[in-house]
Amino acid sequence: MATIRSCCIFVLLALYAASLVIPSNCLGHFFLQKEHKPLFVFGDSLFDAGNNNYINTLKAEQANFWPYGETYFGYPTGRYTDGRQIPDFIAEYAKLPLIPPYLQPGLNNYIYGVNFASGGGGALNETSQGLVIDLQTQLSYFKKVEKQLRQKLGYAQAKTLLSSAVYLFSVGSNDYGAPVTFNKTKDLFEPYSQEEYVGMVIGNITHVVKEIYMKGGRKFGFVGIGPIGCIPALIVLQPGKIGSCLDELTQMAHIHNKALLKVLHTLQIKLKGFRYSYFDFYTSLSERLNNPTKYGFKEGKKACCGSGPYRGINNCGGKGPGKEYELCDNPSDYVFFDGNHPTERASQQFSKLMWSGNSNFTWPCNIQELFGTL
Ligand SMILES: *[C@@H]1O[C@H](CO)[C@@H](O)[C@H](O)[C@H]1NC(C)=O
Ligand SMILES: *[C@@H]1O[C@H](CO)[C@@H](O)[C@H](O)[C@H]1NC(C)=O
Ligand SMILES: *[C@@H]1O[C@H](CO)[C@@H](O)[C@H](O)[C@H]1NC(C)=O
Ligand SMILES: *[C@@H]1O[C@H](CO)[C@@H](O)[C@H](O)[C@H]1NC(C)=O
């Protein structure tokens, strides 16, 4: 008995010492991690682990058919890739189980967190309205979870749990991408200027973050917008210019990311205890898209699954136009699984950078530091 105890104490002290030497310009006090802290996931198809399986929508907004899921799960789960996505890896690194989709039937234990993300969803109500779970609705689901936790654990303990949790977001890409598909006007974001449109997206994200803060949330992780104008699904859209990026979307991604960082910085100053981690997805994905071999891939711009040039036509699984599609032999040779989404292997690389990457990729904290702070 005594030896077991001293061994435990030794391990705990070692962990404590390790947590103290994590180099950081991330504010906050490190403390001993006794219990698993929950992970709540919000946003779009980069994070959706199957919520869209349970809503009435189009096949184009779902991934619950072969070959999605072929690499890791061996069956389609609703994740928009061959295997695991970023929240799956983050959960693993945080020693949590896989975080289930909120709409999964029978789910009623939220102690480890839950995933509200919805493929095609955006911060704006209007983005793919009626086909997705938009961010405001995701917030309303979170409030139901908060209420259930309060009933189960009592107010104080629920609040402690929610304060220890990490809230992970990937949102905005569809707000900028959807008008390309649905709005055929010359100026995509008409009647708004680019800045006004970004202002609405950021305003709605800020609202959600503040509401979660009011319920006790303190630690927020954001994946910035990627190079949305340069992904396979987009570079096939401009007649006569197949293969070139859509400049207006590139601009919007930059304006958005800058505005998001500014808001997060302001919230950290204004809201006591608020901390965040921002992942530079734009640079990380662009580097792999442009120099795939440097990161162990054979193909950067062409997707593994789809049809047409760059397999950019969103027809993976044969549910789209023409039904015919191509599927590569080895998804891990590719950065993109389908025209819009990274492969499991690319997501694993991003997750490692988010979890423990230095401040060239993720700042002011990385996700490991967020989990580690009180
Ligand atoms: C979203 O749209 C609905 C109507 O469809 C409206 O009632 C609601 O207030 C809107 N929410 C926001 C945040 O704009
Ligand atoms: C798209 O185009 C219509 C006009 O056809 C316009 O009313 C709408 O506001 C536009 N903008 C967006 C962002 O959907
Ligand atoms: C949220 O988005 C709606 C459009 O969907 C917009 O009218 C509203 O002003 C935005 N809210 C904020 C706080 O920016
Ligand atoms: C960030 O990148 C620069 C240039 O690539 C490099 O010199 C620097 O050491 C990196 N910073 C860290 C903290 O690794």
Automatic annotation (TrEMBL):
<dbReference type="InterPro" id="IPR044552">
    <property type="entry name" value="GLIP1-5/GLL25"/>
</dbReference>
<dbReference type="InterPro" id="IPR035669">
    <property type="entry name" value="SGNH_plant_lipase-like"/>
</dbReference>
<dbReference type="GO" id="GO:0006629">
    <property type="term" value="P:lipid metabolic process"/>
</dbReference>
<dbReference type="GO" id="GO:0016298">
    <property type="term" value="F:lipase activity"/>
</dbReference>
<comment type="similarity">
    <text>Belongs to the 'GDSL' lipolytic enzyme family.</text>
</comment>
<dbReference type="Pfam" id="PF00657">
    <property type="entry name" value="Lipase_GDSL"/>
</dbReference>
<dbReference type="InterPro" id="IPR008265">
    <property type="entry name" value="Lipase_GDSL_AS"/>
</dbReference>
<keyword id="KW-0732">Signal</keyword>
<dbReference type="InterPro" id="IPR036514">
    <property type="entry name" value="SGNH_hydro_sf"/>
</dbReference>
<protein>
    <recommendedName>
        <fullName>GDSL esterase/lipase 1-like</fullName>
    </recommendedName>
</protein>
<feature type="signal peptide">
    <location>
        <begin position="1"/>
        <end position="23"/>
    </location>
</feature>
<dbReference type="InterPro" id="IPR001087">
    <property type="entry name" value="GDSL"/>
</dbReference>
